[in-house]
Amino acid sequence: MAAITAELIGRTRRVYEQEKQPQVLLLASDYFSKLTEGEYKRVVMTLGHKELKAEHKNGRLLDSGLLSRGTAEQLYLAIRLALAETMSRQISLPLLFDDLFVNFDESRLHAALGLLGELSISRQIVMMTCHKHVAEAAARMIPTAAVISV
Q: Exposed/middle/buried for 81, CB within 10 Å: 0-12, 13-18, 19+?
């Protein structure tokens, strides 16, 4: 039974890697470029090594572990958004974020809110924060945002 389960899990993983991962990486690259305002061009998963890298606008590949904390968080946000988009093509599920921008400076915050504003056209996005400047920036940058204080 364990051998059959392991085989099925392995097949599922291979199907995901061959069919879904390229879509995820392409979309994550687009999102990452937007989030970094063109500083990074794409997200790369090196074949065989399973290492996540970011391609800088100068063409240099950087291991994700060498990115600054803010840039690494932008990378992981891009991947999460891409996964959500590719996994819910048939139905747009809402996205829920809790204090997502804790380590973002002002330019990163504005880039992220710009992207979330674009994505909010086709899906509901709920963001929770205890940071007043984040709520104020979201209200300014996303005209359709409903800011609710509790």
A: buried
pTM of the model: 0.81
- 110 in the same domain as 128: yes
In DSSP terms, 96 is beta-bridged to 126
Across-strand partners of 56? 40
Treating both helix axes as pointing N-terminal to C-terminal, what angle do 21-35 and 69-87 enclose, rounded to 10 degrees? 140
Q: Which two tokens stand for residue 5?
A: 């389960």
Query: Are 49 and 104 members of one domain?
Result: no
Q: Residue 18: CA atoms inside 13 Å, Cβ hemisphere, count?
A: 6
Q: How far apart are CA 46 and CA 60, in angstroms?
A: 14
- The pLDDT of residue 51: 83
Q: By the 8 A CB rule, do 148 and 138 touch? A: no
Task: With a cut of 50, list the residues of the chain below it in pLDDT.
Answer: none
Radius of gyration of the chain (CA): 17
Domain count, the chain: 2
